[in-house]
Design goal:
Length: 430
């Protein structure tokens, strides 16, 4: 290149660069932690990342029902000072560097922090691009996001009626629980059974009782509603080794869509034996917070559905990678987005769901009216499908004044998840 042409190239470079990037440079100007109980049972934390462009910000969820204040402190004291001044466009780089900046990585607290940052950054990028996040992840891979309903009954008749009612309201995927609470159908009442002197006297979970009680309920439900609904059941990690295999075998005739959390994360090696023993589809993952827990299950095809919660594994970035891996190995996704989860994280899952060929189903979650007022643009579930607002980014906003009206207070027992016990007082895995 001669000197004249070289100078011409240099002169053109800034114009070319700005044309290629299309958008002006941006920095993170401020970071806000927004806690709210949303008027009752929730213990939600949101992160608002505010950029140098007036009016441009993103929202992410760091919701942790059980260690709320630990996550809040991690956001405020450790993420915020590190994040201010950085370039919000570099999501992958920020995710990687935030992941390693704690030196000790993974786990629920670290991942909730990462997840909130990551969701807010994708929200910003979507708003910058003028498109919903799923468009930036490859566009719609299917028409809509199917959700599964939650129903239950204290008797098999009640359970069958509840399934029929759910079908009438438009759901095709229906989770059926029995009795009260997780493990329902497997509990002895206080003082029932054989108890040691001076020992535990409370309601006690019995694996054998559970394995005997639940399959006949599904036999009855199928006899009443037929094969049309996709039936699901959540064991909530209450079984161990051989009982898990026996339960799965007993459920095989009812052609389940999936059995959820047959085994706890401490007992994952048993999935290999379950797989050998029967064809009941297995879904697991809502308490996972480390790729070492879920990647081997997917790559060895030991499960059929992965059920991680988006924020619990670190946000949209790792969830999209997980969905891609699931697609490669023929495993499906069924992200856990129910219970105490929030509208921001619900939508984060929605965008990955809609853009992934590995999508199976998403857990439904419904909210009281005040939450709808607090999050304009939040997802809506109609006749078994979830719909986003179609607006750029995640597609919703947060009314901070309304959120501030409902502060998070100290929780009973520090926010502890309840402990189930067996007859001899042993703690049962939740
Ligand atoms: Mg569950």
């Amino acid at each position: 290149m001669d000197r004249r042409n070289f100078l011409k190239t240099v002169a053109l470079a800034p114009a070319l660069a700005s044309r290629m990037n299309g958008l002006p440079p941006l920095t993170i100007k401020d970071v806000k932690v927004i806690p709210t109980s949303a008027g009752g049972r929730y213990r939600w934390l949101f992160l608002k990342i505010i950029t140098s462009e007036p009016g441009l910000y993103g929202i992410g969820s760091a919701n942790d029902m059980f260690q709320t204040f630990a996550v809040a402190a991690a956001l405020e004291k450790h993420l915020k000072p590190w994040l201010i001044g950085k370039d919000p466009d570099r999501i992958e780089d920020l995710w990687q560097s935030a992941h390693f900046k704690t030196y000790w990585r993974n786990g629920p607290v670290n991942n909730k922090v990462l997840g909130a940052m990551d969701e807010a950054l994708w929200d910003i990028k979507g708003k910058r691009a003028g498109m919903p996040i799923y468009e930036m992840l490859g566009g719609k891979a299917h028409d809509a996001v199917a959700c599964y309903d939650h129903v239950g009954g204290r008797t098999k008749e009640e359970a069958a009626e509840a399934v029929a009612k759910s079908m009438e309201s438009g759901f095709r995927h229906i989770r059926v629980q029995y009795g009260s609470g997780y493990g329902g159908g497997g509990f002895l009442k206080a003082n029932e059974g054989v108890r040691a002197e001076g020992g535990y006297t409370g309601s006690a979970f019995d694996e054998d009782l559970y394995v005997e009680t639940i399959p006949p309920v599904f036999d009855y439900v199928r006899s009443k509603v037929g094969m049309a609904p996709k039936l699901l059941h959540d064991v909530h990690s209450h079984l161990s080794g051989s009982n898990a295999i026996l339960f799965s075998k007993k459920m095989e005739p009812f052609h389940m869509y999936f059995v959820e959390d047959l085994l706890s994360p401490e007992r994952l090696a048993w999935y290999r034996e379950v797989r050998r023993a029967c064809a009941t589809p297995q879904a697991v993952g809502e308490v996972f917070s480390n790729p070492a827990e879920y990647y081997p299950l997917v790559s060895e095809r030991l499960i059929d559905f992965v059920r991680c919660r988006v924020t619990a594994i670190g946000g949209i970035t790792p969830t999209k990678k997980l969905a891609t891996m699931c697609e490669v190995f023929g495993v499906k996704t069924a992200f856990q987005e129910g219970g105490e989860n929030d509208p921001v994280n619900q939508l984060a899952a929605y965008h990955v769901d809609l853009s992934s060929s590995a999508f199976g189903v998403q857990e439904e979650n419904h909210f009281p009216p005040v939450v709808h007022e607090m999050f304009p643009g939040m997802a809506e579930i109609r006749k078994g499908f979830m719909y986003g607002s179609g607006k750029p980014g995640l597609g919703l906003d947060i009314n901070e004044e309304l959120a501030a009206k409902y502060p998070i207070t100290e929780a009973r027992l520090g926010g502890a998840y309840p402990t189930d016990r067996s007859q001899d007082g042993t703690v049962v895995t939740p």
